[in-house]
Design goal:
Helices cover about 80% and strands about 0% of the residues. The protein is an all-alpha fold.
């Protein structure tokens, strides 16, 4: 149990790094940061594919197409929206919105997968949803107050950042549901090989995205210095670090935790990512979060923990007719 919790903590610390990149590279377009990160992840997946080569040969054309869909929406599009949201609204609010994912996924899966996974009683979910809503409202109030006190701030930019964070939540709500569908339908396949397959299809996707961005900026006579921007050393190092630690090692640690912990406990520990991201964001600001923000963070954690503790009830089975 203790080793599993430590692995989950390390995974959360690694995953929190994805919220740092947009803050450290504010002048880099979000799309460029997304394709850069997944280009690094795809290159890391290449040597890993050697160890899963037998399992990868068993994948059909439909399997590879499904992996491509999962990578396009759950990886590339998700991070484009997340990076743009952080650049527009700052770190805390998008982090809090993303932090609602465990509950959002539970709500969406409650009816969709009721026969397979059981149902969560809505009356038991209601208190957690209220706590999460209040937590996001507290952090939003602090950020809006700072926005109003800044004469150069753009309220529409802040609102668009919040909207992009909601799109990111939608992407990563769809991803685990579809990913779980494939894994449940292919119980004899290796989950590690399936993760490697998604990394492999991400590579050409990231390469194509990079080429399109480069061509588009050249055609529009953009002043941005492609292919690596005005700080190439920082950009390459940061993309490699996020690709290695967040995309590969983070997933590896989470898989280790999932092998050692009950699912109900592992689900609660996903809040480590939110806490790490908020800690990094305020560390970059060089000051502690305001009291209201800390209260909002506490409400978010309480809401998520309360929600994942709700035990699903088996769906009613239809009795066969004699």
């Amino acid at each position: 149990m203790l080793i599993g919790i430590v692995y989950a903590l390390i995974a959360g610390l690694f995953w929190g790094l994805v919220f740092v990149g947009p803050l450290l590279l504010p002048e880099y377009p979000a799309a460029l940061q997304s394709v850069g990160r997944y280009l690094a992840f795809g290159l890391i997946a290449l040597p890993l594919a050697w160890f899963d080569r037998i399992e990868l040969r068993r994948l059909s054309r439909g399997d590879w197409l499904e992996a491509l869909k999962l990578s396009a929406i759950g990886n590339v599009l998700y991070y484009v929206c997340l990076a743009a949201a952080i650049q527009r609204a700052g770190g805390p609010l998008p982090t809090m919105i993303i932090g609602t994912l465990p509950v959002v996924i539970a709500i969406c899966a409650n009816r969709r997968n009721a026969r397979r996974d059981g149902t969560l009683p809505w009356r038991k979910l209601a208190p957690s949803l209220a706590l999460i809503g209040l937590g996001v409202a507290c952090v939003n109030q602090v950020e809006l107050a700072a926005l109003r006190s800044d004469p150069a701030a753009d309220p529409w930019r802040y609102l668009s950042g919040a909207a992009l964070a909601l799109v990111a939540v939608a992407c990563w709500t769809w991803y685990p549901l579809r990913n779980a569908d494939w894994l449940r339908d292919h119980t004899g396949r290796s989950p590690r090989a399936w993760a490697t397959a998604q990394g492999l299809v991400t590579l050409p996707l990231a390469e194509a995205g990079y080429a399109l961005l480069w061509g588009g900026m050249t055609w529009s006579a953009s002043s941005f210095a492609m292919p690596l921007g005005p700080r190439p050393g920082v950009f390459v190092a940061l993309m490699c670090a996020i690709g290695l630690f967040a995309s590969w090692l983070g997933t590896l640690c989470w898989n280790q935790a999932s092998q050692r912990l009950p699912t109900a406990i592992a689900g609660q520990l996903i809040v480590f990512e939110t806490l790490a991201a908020l800690a990094y964001a305020f560390a970059l600001r060089s000051h502690a979060p305001p009291l209201l923000t800390m209260f909002g963070i506490a409400l978010l954690i309480a809401g998520v923990v309360l929600a994942v503790r709700v035990q699903p009830k088996p769906a009613a089975q239809t009795r066969p007719v004699a």
